[in-house]
Amino acid sequence: MADFKRINTLKAHELWESKQARFVDIRDERSYVAAHIPGSMRLTDANVQQFLSELDDNDQVVVVCYHGNSSQGAAQYLAHQGVEVVSSLDGGMTAWAQAFPEAVERS
């Protein structure tokens, strides 16, 4: 059975800086617009199938939510859909913004 990993903000930031992972944000649109990880995309029920179809086999995915709870379910879903390397960001966007305020984009 496919599974996901949990990663901390430091490891996620390393992946983000080196562009080794695709970041997806599952928060509501208002929260995403207010603050998100630069380069991340907002993943919804409406666009998840398109996202999956555009992934390469070796793409690593990091799922971001508010506090790192909802992202675990989404990461598990992506793993069950065949994404081989998928992670949930521990602490979510809240932890990311506290650890790396310079790496937060506001629309």
Number of helices: 5
Topology-level CATH name: Oxidized Rhodanese, domain 1
Count of the separate structural domains = 1
- The shape is globular
State the CATH class: Alpha Beta
- Poorly predicted regions: none
H and E string = EHEHEHEHEH
Distance between the termini: 38 Å
Strand numbers in spatial order across the main sheet = 1-5-4-2-3
Overall number of strands: 5
> CATH superfamily, please?
Rhodanese-like domain
Q: What Rg, in angstroms, do the CA atoms define?
A: 12 Å
**Helix percentage:** 25-40%
Percentage of β-strand residues: 15-25%
Q: What's the story with the biggest beta sheet?
A: 5 strands, parallel
Mean pLDDT: 97
Structural class: alpha/beta
What's the CATH architecture name? 3-Layer(aba) Sandwich
Structure description:
- This is Thiosulfate sulfurtransferase GlpE.
- Residues 17-105 form the Rhodanese domain.
- There is one protein chain.
- A five-stranded parallel sheet has the order 1-5-4-2-3.
- It has helices spanning 9-17, 29-34, 48-54, 70-80, 92-99; strands at 5-7, 22-25, 41-42, 60-64, 85-89.
- It has one domain: 3-Layer(aba) Sandwich (Oxidized Rhodanese, domain 1), CATH 3.40.250.
- The protein has 107 residues and is an alpha/beta fold.
Can you give me a brief rundown of this structure?
The model has no long low-confidence stretch (mean pLDDT 97). The chain has five helices and five strands. It has 107 residues and is of the alpha/beta class.
